[in-house]
Amino acid sequence: MSETLTLRYRKLHESAIAPEFAHGAAEDAGMDLYSSEDVELPPSEWRNVGTGICIEIPPGFEGQLRPRSGLARRHGLTLLNSPATIDPGYRGELRITLINFSKEPYQVRPGDRIAQLVIARYASVRWELAESLETSRRGPGGFGSTGR
């Protein structure tokens, strides 16, 4: 099992729900995020939906907002910006930009699971200008370069 990281959060609304693993950390990478708002999502449109929480991510980590597969499969809903990055310095409300790709309106209600949050490490980077780069098998090949 991986390490356990303690994340602090703050509720902006009494009814806000903290992120949680549906099946526990041993089985889930993503934690469910819940709506704190009642929002109608018309077909082919997007809306920002509040979760009612702010989180404190430590340096060296980021939050990644990802769609929920059940919402996509059953209702045609996904995140407009996915994965979205929550930087460790951000302290505002987690808001989810949902888009409705279906032909029917969708009603988001408080307490609905609307996205997933994955906490991931990231590397600090220092750039170094080089005259040349080491060769690789792939080389400069881009999209479709493997021929498969």
Written description of the protein model:
The chain has 148 residues and is mostly beta strands. 5% of the residues lie in helices and 36% in strands. It contains 1 helix and 10 strands; from the N terminus they run E-E-E-E-E-H-E-E-E-E-E. It has a 4-stranded antiparallel beta sheet. The chain has a 4-stranded antiparallel beta sheet with strand order 2-10-5-7, with no helix packed on it. It starts with 7 loop residues before the first strand and ends in a 27-residue tail after the last strand.
Question: What does the secondary structure layout of this molecule look like, with pairings?
Answer:
Layout: E1 8-11, E2 31-34, E3 39-41, E4 46-56, E5 61-66, H1 69-75, E6 77-79, E7 84-86, E8 93-100, E9 106-108, E10 113-121
Antiparallel strand pairs: 1-4, 2-10, 3-9, 4-8, 5-7, 5-10, 6-8
Compact overview of the structure:
With 148 residues, this protein is mainly beta.
Q: Approximately how much helix is present in the residues?
A: under 10%
Based on CA atoms alone, the radius of gyration comes out at: 19 Å
Overall 3D shape: globular
Largest sheet: 4 strands, antiparallel
Order of helices and strands: EEEEEHEEEEE
Average pLDDT number: 93
Tell me the structural class.
mainly beta
Number of helices: 1
